[in-house]
Write a structure and sequence with these properties.
There is one protein chain. By secondary structure, the protein is α/β, with parallel strands linked by helices. The chain has one domain: Hypothetical Protein Aq_1857, Chain: A. 17% of the residues lie in helices and 47% in strands. It contains 2 helices and 9 strands; from the N terminus they run βαββββαββββ. The strands form 3 sheets. It has a 4-stranded mixed sheet with strand order 3-2-5-4. Strand 4 and strand 5 form a beta hairpin.
Length: 107
């Protein structure tokens, strides 16, 4: 199982944790949601818990619960700026379809 973190995403995670003043990294996962079945979740990781997998890259850390790994294996998390919009971009090779609004996906 592997996850990748782009340099831009790593820099954004570091910036947000520094602004917040605490945290070990970014916790990424999935939940059942939306019209396609799954949606990504993100939160600060303040602790490493039993069952967590940790991925370090470019000075930042992603934390993922082991049960989410089958849906996230091969994921690349990027940070993209397009005009005035900025956001994390999930590039997931497991995705077979996405809903029209882009909020949920199917595998």
């Amino acid at each position: 199982m592997s996850l990748q973190l782009s340099p831009a995403a790593a820099a954004r995670i570091q910036t947000q944790i520094a602004k917040r003043g605490k945290g070990l990294g970014l916790r990424v996962g999935v939940k059942k949601s939306g019209c396609s079945g799954w949606a990504y979740t993100m939160d600060y990781a303040d602790a490493i818990e039993d069952g967590d997998q940790v991925y370090d890259a470019h000075g930042a850390r992603l934390v993922v619960r082991a049960e989410h790994l089958p849906l996230l294996d091969g994921l690349t998390l990027d940070w993209q700026k397009q005009g005035l919009n900025e956001s994390f971009k999930f590039v997931n090779p497991n995705v077979k379809a996405q809903c029209g609004c882009g909020e949920s996906f199917a595998v």
